[in-house]
């Protein structure tokens, strides 16, 4: 019987030499006459261990990592094909690695375990159970389950997903309706969308198909970040296989209802992560923000009712339909229900994906999972939620991961990206970067964002140069307030958040 060996095929593992590692394992198996089955699985999200090679044994999957190409001959000599432990890279049973074992994986329960493109593998691990149940329910019953789950948009605004779906559901059925997935993942330190698409693509497909059944939409689009070629290749093949097997097309699972899905590559602009700008881009126009109302749920893509959700929002839906909305709502705290995929990045020793129920403290994530800084120096600041969110000092790290708790601090959870800085960082330079980022990425439609960000860079430069410092600090604060209150969308409205947090928590860095 062939020994099954797993080598990840996602972008992170590939960048660390996974293809070469896989080729060498096959090479040495051939030389030794060992019969192996090489499976290119997805990453488990333990990035500091990539490439993570796993060997299936009678006692479970045994891990070795991080495996570089030069390590393969030694691993083979030490008994890799038998899952032996006589090597420094031996990790033991992968399921028992503390980083993984302490998580509560609902959305990401399959990543790293299955072959991303195998429908049989997906089904064997609970895949499409939610869709099978959805086809037996009325559209309103599907929407009710999502509302009962308490699921909120995982893209940043945290708007209740079920309410958005209800709005589209209630629009007249004779209209064409659309499902649009915002997969233009552009926030710093975020990679959960990419992992979902590269490691478990049918989960996204299933979630979007359920959304289509719920609101009466027959067509969907995945607006994919153009810098994700691996995800693009995997999604296209997964869509083809799903349609061939009847999970997409004119008759979804024998329901008599149609749902077609296709991928469109994004425009390479951060502003297209804003839902109305995304819709403009999908229509073939320049990515400019639309004024609201009307909301996209009423007049969205091509002027028709449209559900626009983030990858992680759709990815949570199969579990909700399979296990029930209450099962999902049983996790979390307050109005933040379910789990949050936290992405640890920046100056961190153990970077990767951590899925936990809302309510865990930021400090616990940083220390118990992140393991401190990569540099070994003390942490100074943490930015949660992307480049438009506040920098948090150590005094705020006990805050639970909860939308309302973070909001009370003037911070936000956003897409769940956590970027860590050690004590060598110049927070004044980070404040300047926030304004500069806006000058580059603004769509330019509204004056507070377009002009305010340019003036912001200039004022910060004057403050740091010691020019009329007190007056310029007052001017910077007033400029931030104008951008927050006057910008058309969150691009200009949130750019001041990191600047204001530096002024409040790291004032000496700004004036240094």
TrEMBL record:
Its cofactor is FMN. Pfam families: Complex1_51K (PF01512), NADH_4Fe-4S (PF10589). The keyword Iron applies. InterPro entries: NADH-UbQ_OxRdtase_51kDa_CS, Nuo51_FMN-bd, Nuo51_FMN-bd_sf, Nuop51_4Fe4S-bd, Nuop51_4Fe4S-bd_sf, Thioredoxin-like_sf. Gene3D superfamilies: 3.10.20.600, 6.10.250.1450, NADH-ubiquinone oxidoreductase 51kDa subunit, NADH-ubiquinone oxidoreductase 51kDa subunit, iron-sulphur binding domain. Belongs to the complex I 51 kDa subunit family. This is NADH-quinone oxidoreductase subunit F. The lineage of its organism: Bacteria, Pseudomonadati, Pseudomonadota, Gammaproteobacteria, Pseudomonadales.
């Amino acid at each position: 019987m062939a020994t099954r060996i797993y080598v990840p095929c996602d972008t992170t593992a590939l960048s660390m030499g996974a293809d070469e590692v896989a080729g060498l394992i096959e090479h040495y198996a051939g030389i030794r006459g060992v019969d192996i089955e090489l499976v290119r699985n997805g990453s488990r999200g333990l990035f500091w261990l990539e490439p993570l090679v796993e060997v299936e044994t009678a006692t479970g999957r045994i891990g070795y990592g991080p495996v570089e190409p030069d390590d393969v001959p030694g691993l083979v000599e030490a008994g890799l094909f038998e899952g032996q432990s006589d090597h420094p890279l031996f990790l033991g049973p992968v399921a028992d690695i503390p980083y993984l074992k302490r998580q509560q994986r609902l959305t990401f329960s399959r990543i790293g375990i299955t072959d991303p493109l195998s429908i049989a593998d997906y089904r064997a691990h609970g895949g499409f159970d939610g869709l099978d149940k959805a086809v037996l329910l009325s559209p309103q019953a599907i929407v009710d389950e999502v509302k009962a789950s308490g699921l909120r948009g995982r893209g940043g605004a945290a708007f209740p997903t079920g309410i958005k779906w209800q709005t589209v559901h209630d629009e007249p059925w004779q209209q064409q309706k659309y499902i649009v997935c915002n997969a233009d993942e552009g926030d710093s330190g975020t990679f959960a969308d990419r992992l979902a698409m590269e490691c478990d693509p049918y989960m996204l497909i299933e979630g979007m198909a359920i959304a289509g059944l719920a609101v009466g939409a027959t067509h969907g689009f995945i607006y994919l970040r153009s810098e994700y070629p691996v995800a693009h290749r995997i999604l296209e093949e997964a869509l083809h296989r799903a349609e061939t097997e009847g999970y997409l097309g004119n008759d979804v699972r024998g329901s008599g209802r149609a749902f077609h899905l296709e991928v469109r590559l994004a425009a390479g602009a951060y502003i297209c992560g804003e839902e109305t700008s995304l819709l403009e881009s999908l229509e073939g126009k320049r990515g400019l923000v639309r004024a609201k109302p009307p909301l996209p749920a009423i007049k969205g893509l091509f002027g028709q009712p449209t559900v626009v959700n983030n990858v992680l929002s759709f990815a949570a839906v199969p579990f909700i339909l399979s296990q029930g909305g209450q099962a999902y709502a049983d996790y979390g705290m307050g109005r933040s229900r379910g789990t949050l995929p936290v992405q640890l990045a920046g100056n961190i020793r153990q970077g990767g994906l951590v899925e936990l129920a809302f309510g865990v403290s930021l400090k616990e994530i940083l220390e118990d999972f992140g393991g401190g800084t990569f540099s070994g120096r003390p942490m100074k600041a943490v930015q949660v939620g992307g480049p438009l969110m506040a920098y948090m000092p150590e005094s705020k790290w006990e805050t639970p991961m909860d939308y309302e708790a973070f909001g009370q601090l003037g911070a936000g959870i956003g897409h769940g990206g956590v970027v860590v800085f050690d004590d060598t960082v110049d927070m004044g330079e980070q404040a300047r970067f926030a304004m500069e980022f806006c000058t580059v990425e603004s769509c330019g439609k509204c004056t507070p964002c377009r002009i305010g960000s340019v003036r912001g860079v200039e004022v910060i430069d004057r403050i740091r140069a010691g020019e009329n410092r007190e007056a310029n600090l007052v001017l910077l604060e007033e400029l931030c307030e104008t951008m927050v209150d006057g910008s058309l969308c969150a691009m200009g409205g949130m750019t001041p958040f990191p600047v204001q947090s530096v002024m409040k928590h790291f004032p000496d860095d700004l004036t240094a």
